[in-house]
Amino acid sequence: MTPSTSLPSAVTALMTLYGTPGQAGFGSAVFYDVIKPGADLEPIAVRYYQHFVGDLWERFGKSAWMRTGRNYFVITQGRHSRNGRQV
Questions:
Q1: Which of 22, 24, 29, 49 is the most buried (most CB within 10 A)?
Q2: Res 2: pLDDT
Q3: Structural domains of the chain, count
Q4: 3 within domain boundaries
Q5: What is the pLDDT, as a whole number, of residue 87?
Q6: Domain-embedded: residue 43
Q7: Which residues contact 6 (CB under 8 A, 6 or more apart)?
């Protein structure tokens, strides 16, 4: 998203509280993107995670950052599950 693009007010408020996408250190940041319905969210999330981690991503490698990941909510063919349990 370019700086000239206006953000929804809710996103602006969250960025004010938690910060914008950056690599200044670990903490919190708000990322905003418009994606097409049905898009695979995992590569988008990994791209933002890689940006947030910055140079450390290359230093330790993708596997070091991704091995602690866990799916908390999954939607598959109309079924929802949370932590491996259908909801």
A1: 29
A2: 42
A3: 1
A4: no
A5: 47
A6: yes
A7: none
DSSP H/E element including 79? strand 79-82
Residue 41 belongs to what domain range? Answer: 9-86
Decide which of 29 and 74 is more confident. Answer: 29
Both structure tokens of 56? 């450390």
pTM: 0.58
Which sign does the torsion angle of CA 25, 64, 57, 53 carry?
Answer: negative
Q: How far apart are CA 30 and CA 87, in angstroms?
A: 28
Task: Output the CA torsion 11→17→18→23 (10° steps).
Answer: 90
> Is the torsion defined by CA of 24, 15, 49, 1 positive or negative?
negative
Highest mean pLDDT among 20-29, 41-50, 70-79: 41-50
Tell whether 80 is covered by a domain. Answer: yes
